[in-house]
Design brief:
alpha+beta, 6-stranded antiparallel β-sheet, two-stranded antiparallel ribbon, about 15% strand, globular, disordered N terminus, DUF2252
Length: about 475
């Protein structure tokens, strides 16, 4: 199916008729058989992947784009992290199941980890919803499993080890969706995974053998590090005193305080952020929110991640009772999702709202500071949408660069199950479970697709690095 004929994806209310929902899932196999998910052959009309990245760069701050390219050229996996648009363009050329969920849009291996819930529990969940939009459930599954294959190649895992990882992820997704389809409504909606349950699950799966004990210690280490990354640690790392006043400290080009901007841009930028904060307050969903007791102190531009580098991202210092009661918020610019050109525009006027609404749907428990700005106009007359959240609040990740085969397979399964939980809340879990069925047909197909698409990613990565070497696009290390 070509992008021009792709149906606009929309979430629809779920029926209480469970048999009808199950029948709809089985009928979807006529639209796309499960074995059909294995197919990937680049069409002759495939758009140049480097050209797609160049088009993205035109919408970003030109002084930051070379940093993004520099990070993407470090490995095929790093390139894949920044290439959500390329994969979306490819997925739009192949037939889909028609079973719609709220997509993450960038469900790769590094966008899962540990997060602090509003109830102050450490949970395993998804992260990074910049590209979220309703769409076919398998788009997220294929991106996740392709990332697992690419990361496994990067780590030098054998064919058999990577096969085990891929299949663990899809099997985890399928079996979790089957369980959610058979669960009570509230059990399916409230299902979360605490770090303690992950720890016990690993212990059970490995039956306390030597590898299992190492993995449990690894989980304990990541959890301890996550709990230490709270607002106090963030402030102590990034904030100091300049002439007796609290200020975010410079670390150019990654952290640039607002006063270091040239000309009159600093005053305009600070005023823009005050407008963003004022608009953001109204989206937090509480008549009395802790934010009301904080006041603005300072801000700085901050570069982080891979895919979002070049969009405007700020850290904002707020003060509570005194200098010892400070927090940092991250305000990230939200642009159109890479999925929108293929699945239709978002129903939300603000892309900040699109991101936040999608995250609130997909995450089991979120940050109480998560909100958005309905849109402000900068000094150049351009509308800017932002979403905001607390910076580094109980956040921990499992470094793909350190994965070993035993742990990688368990981690892949955990990611697959977590993705299924999110999709099961936002789409019709009964229909999707019926479509997936109890056999390995879907597992086999998506696993095969991931291998073919990893080959495609390798080829695109080579084209990307050639473009850098030939001077077509700029890249710097930072």
């Amino acid at each position: 199916m070509s992008p021009s004929t792709m149906p606009v994806a929309r979430l629809s209310p779920q029926s209480s008729d469970f048999e009808a929902r199950r029948a709809a899932g089985l009928e979807a196999r006529a639209r796309l058989r499960r074995s059909g998910h294995a197919e990937w052959t680049p069409p002759q009309t495939r758009v140049d992947p480097v050209a797609l990245l160049e088009g993205q760069a035109a919408q970003r701050d030109p002084d930051l784009v070379p940093i993004r390219h520099g990070r993407m050229r470090t490995s095929p996996f790093a390139f894949f992290r920044g290439a959500a648009l390329i994969m979306a363009a490819d997925l739009a050329t192949i037939r889909d199941s028609g079973l719609v969920v709220q997509l993450c849009g960038d469900a790769h291996l590094s966008n899962f980890g540990l997060f602090g819930s509003a109830e102050r529990r450490l949970v395993f969940d998804m992260n990074d919803f910049d590209e979220t939009l309703p769409g076919p459930f398998e788009w997220d599954v294929k991106r996740l499993v392709a990332s697992i294959e690419i990361a496994g190649r990067h780590r030098g895992f054998t064919d058999g080890e990577r096969d085990g990882m891929r299949r663990a992820a899809v099997r985890g997704y399928r079996e979790q969706m089957q369980g959610a389809a058979g669960a009570s409504v509230l059990d399916a909606w409230y299902d979360t995974v605490s770090v303690e349950s992950v720890r016990e699950w690993v212990r059970r799966e490995r039956k306390a053998d030597r590898a299992g004990k190492r993995q449990v210690r690894g989980i304990d280490s990541v959890a301890a590090k996550a709990r230490s990354k709270d607002r106090v640690k963030a402030v102590s790392k990034l904030v100091g005193f300049v002439d007796g006043r609290m200020r975010i400290l410079p670390d150019p080009p990654l952290v640039v305080p607002v006063e270091d901007f040239v000309g009159g841009e600093q005053a305009a930028t600070a005023e823009l952020m005050r407008e963003v904060l004022d608009a953001y307050r109204s989206t937090l969903g509480a008549a009395r929110h802790p934010l009301s007791e904080y006041s603005y102190v300072h801000m700085a531009r901050r570069v982080s991640g891979v895919g979002s580098v070049g969009t405007r991202s700020w850290i904002v210092l707020l003060r509570g009772r005194d200098d010892d009661d400070a927090i940092l918020l991250q305000a990230k610019e939200a642009q159109a999702s890479v999925l929108e050109r293929f699945l239709g525009p978002s129903e939300h006027a603000s892309h900040g709202e699109r991101v936040v609404r999608g995250q609130r749907l997909m995450q089991a428990s979120g940050d109480i500071f998560l909100g958005w700005s309905p849109g402000v106009t900068d000094a150049n007359g351009r509308r800017r949408d932002f979403y905001l959240r607390q910076l580094h609040d109980w956040k921990g990740s499992f470094d793909p660069e350190k994965l070993v085969p035993h742990g990688a397979e368990l981690y892949a399964r955990l990611c697959g199950e977590t993705l299924a939980r999110a999709h099961g809340r936002t789409g019709d879990r009964v229909a999707i479970a019926a479509y997936l069925g109890g056999s390995r047909a879907f597992d086999d197909a998506v696993s095969a697709f991931a291998v073919s698409y990893a080959d495609q990613n390798d080829e695109d990565f080579r084209a990307f690095t050639r473009a850098i070497d030939e001077g077509r696009i700029a890249a710097v290390d930072a």
